[in-house]
């Protein structure tokens, strides 16, 4: 419930206690470059995504998962933008979240991005249960990912999530290390909630 000074534990400030996995989730950029994700852990992340809810159970989402040291990982890494390239290479795995924005017949999948986000959210919670951390990125080259993995136009790469074992902030380049230890902030509940009785 409180923000601590340690760079690897950054719990949320909440009015009431949350379940531990939600309370302790945060998005680091410093990942242990030696840590690996097991095949079972990666499967658990993908299963968490698979069993997330979706509108009418249409499941308009696909995933591309690469563990560090594989060609898939390197291809995903090469399609990150800007400062994401400075830190994400130490993650144990990179997972592209792809929305199926339309059916084969061209009909819009209205809730695709919402359903995709639910799946990625489930992955992040599962990651924490596995002793891992997750960091989502929208700063990606969607067209480059489409081309590299032969995705047709109706499939939209929306985010890449880095999964791995959190490391000390001090191992990041200076500017990123500073950001890593800034207080985690949110809108106040009364700004967020429009009506409540
Ligand atoms: C859709 C989405 C896109 C994001 N894109 C990036 C990104 O490109 N690079 C980055 O470093 N962080 C990115 N983030 C991480 C957010 O900045 C982070 O979740 C937010 O500051 C809250 O911090 P917390 O996750 O530690 O609570 C993204 C998060 C989400 C959900």
Summarize the model shown.
The protein is α+β, with helices and mostly antiparallel strands. It is built from 8 helices and 4 strands.
Task: Summarize this structure as a short list of keywords or feature phrases.
197 residues; alpha+beta; 15% strand; 8 helices; NADH Oxidase; binds flavin mononucleotide
Describe the 3D structure:
With 197 residues, this protein is α+β, with helices and mostly antiparallel strands. The chain has a single domain (29-180), classed as NADH Oxidase, CATH 3.40.109. It has helices at residues 20-24, 39-50, 71-77, 84-87, 112-129, 142-148, 174-180, 189-192; strands at 61-67, 93-100, 133-137, 155-164. α2 (39-50) packs antiparallel against α5.
Q: Domains counted in the coordinates: how many?
A: 1
Strand composition percent: 15-25%
Q: Outline, from the CA principal axes? A: globular
Largest sheet entry: 4 strands, antiparallel
CATH superfamily: NADH Oxidase
Count of DSSP strands: 4
- Ligand species: flavin mononucleotide
Q: Regarding CATH, which class?
A: Alpha Beta
Share in helix = 25-40%
Q: So how many helices? A: 8
The H-and-E topology, N to C, reads as: HHEHHEHEHEHH
In CATH terms, what is the fold-level topology?
NADH Oxidase
Strand order of the largest sheet: 1-2-4-3
Unreliable stretches: 1-5
Q: What is the rounded distance between the termini?
A: 25 Å
**Secondary-structure-derived class:** alpha+beta
Average pLDDT metric = 95
Structural topology:
Layout: H1 20-24, H2 39-50, E1 61-67, H3 71-77, H4 84-87, E2 93-100, H5 112-129, E3 133-137, H6 142-148, E4 155-164, H7 174-180, H8 189-192
Antiparallel strand pairs: 1-2, 2-4, 3-4
The structure holds flavin mononucleotide.
């Amino acid at each position: 419930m409180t923000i601590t000074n340690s760079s690897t534990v950054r719990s949320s400030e909440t009015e009431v206690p949350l379940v531990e996995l939600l309370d302790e989730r945060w998005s680091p950029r410093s990942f242990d470059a030696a840590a690996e994700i097991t095949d079972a852990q990666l499967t658990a992340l993908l299963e968490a995504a698979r069993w997330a809810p979706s509108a009418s159970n249409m499941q308009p989402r696909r995933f591309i998962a690469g563990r560090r040291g594989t060609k898939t990982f390197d291809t995903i890494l090469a399609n990150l933008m800007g400062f994401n390239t400075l830190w994400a290479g130490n993650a144990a795995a990179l997972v592209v979240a792809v929305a199926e924005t339309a059916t084969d017949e061209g009909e819009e999948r209205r809730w695709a991005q919402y359903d995709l986000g639910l799946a990625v959210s489930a992955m992040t919670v599962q990651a924490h249960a596995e002793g891992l951390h997750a960091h989502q990125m929208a700063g990606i080259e969607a067209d480059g990912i489409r081309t590299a993995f032969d995705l047709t136009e109706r499939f939209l790469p929306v985010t890449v999530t880095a999964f791995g074992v959190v490391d000390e902030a001090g191992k990041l380049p200076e500017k990123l290390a500073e950001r890593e230890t800034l207080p985690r902030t949110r809108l106040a509940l009364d700004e967020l909630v429009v009506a409540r009785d």
